[in-house]
Amino acid sequence: MKIVDWLLGRGRLLTPPQRDRLARWRALPEPDLHQSRDRQRYVVVDVESTGLDVHRDRLLAIGAVTIEASRIVLGRSFRRVLRQDRASDHANILVHGIGGSAQTAGDDPATVLLDFLDFIGKDPLVGFHAAFDEIMLHKASRRHLGQGFRRTWIDIALLAPALREVAAGKTKGFDDWLSDHGILNYSRHDALADALATAQLFLALGRRADAAGLASAAELLESARSQAWLAQQRR
């Protein structure tokens, strides 16, 4: 471990077996993002946090489901709460429903993050406003594992407008998209429930992707990135 990581407290509690797990994940091969979407495994991710300030707030819970062969694999999901030194405030608890005692009795953060890495492998991730999820996972990984978290993300908040699901210059929120596609979310602001709803939305958008000739994850990524560039030009 680097001296700077030890001084900053990053990953200093990792046991040798945990370090071995992290090394095995690092050694996994990267996926072929140019293969057919039907052959690609995707992991749809949502997180809950102690607030919306990416500089101050902490990762609280992770939820994830997998999509294989263009189907949600209901028997393979991930939902864990990371143990907190102190619970978030009452207003925050009212949003996600994870009480103070559940927060302070959560699982060891390093173990949760390593289990999450095992779950996702190196497959592309899907999220809605994925930048927030990525930042919170990156911060937690640096703190508890001694390394950041940078993966390939397909952001549905960018992909949907790119597929012309909304008029140019307009924005729509997550709940609006779900309503438009008749998708029910059984527990809003629960990480696993939101991940499941996001996965359903991703599959619903697949019909538009087919019509647009977007046959692979790489093409979906390029479409979303182009939409992000257009949005910046309109500002």
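Next protein, fold it too.
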Amino acid sequence: MAEAQAASAQAVVRNISDTARWAAVFRARETERPDALFRDPFAERLAGKMGVDIANTLPEGNSHAWAWVARTYLFDQFIAQELAQGVDMVVNLAAGLDARPYRMALPASLQWIEVDLPEILAYKEGILANEKPSCALQRTRLDLSDGAARRALFADLNRRANKILVLTEGLIIYLSADEAAALAKDLAAGSHFERWLLDLASPGLLRMMQRTTGKQLSKVGAPFQFAPAEGSAFFTPHGWEPLEVKSLLKTATRFKRPPFLLRLLGRLPEMRQPAGNRPWSGVCLFKKR
């Protein structure tokens, strides 16, 4: 049974971009709840049948919906907070199937830049062709692993705004430590790149994920890699200082999303030191040093 499931998962997941369809499944399911923490009326269409198939065939593909929901909720909360503090451009790297420019109440003057590979952006544009974003939306086709092209884009965006917030939701875990450091340095080089919002896992959680879902994603060139032992402090030498760090489990526990036993763990006090071998994930807001 396990071998059949693994073979099926490989057939469904073709590349890293397909994980965006998987993420959209959880936004769609949360939207259906009467007590939803957010509403994404586009998520079901964006996920499509392939997204559902991915969730149903990946090992533990449906097991941690609470974490996906908490991550989306925290990103929404931090984005709203930073917009209130004067952010005039949001740069969403590896934007995938995120629909925030359509589903969130955003200032019409806000510049929202989505950056991702051509195929996934074309797919999203097709699904949302008849929808209207609430802000000034621009999509840029770019392979973020191309350092020179990435730096050229950042330099151009830096000239167009006064206070920039960068989002890398669901991206960092797929990078190597060197790639994460290089991205941090490139972002820090822009004088107007002031805030950076990302999600982070502990080494303990990374090992758990690599034994389940990660096995199949590795086979299509999308391995889980990055979970620094020093936690958010990893980015300090590379130009970014953590402002706020929010645990996914503690956030989800507030809204009774995880299973009961996990909710008991979610009520324990948060430890100050990095999680290390303990399973932990969270959303981190950084400021430029």
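About the second fold: The first helix runs from residue 2 to 12.
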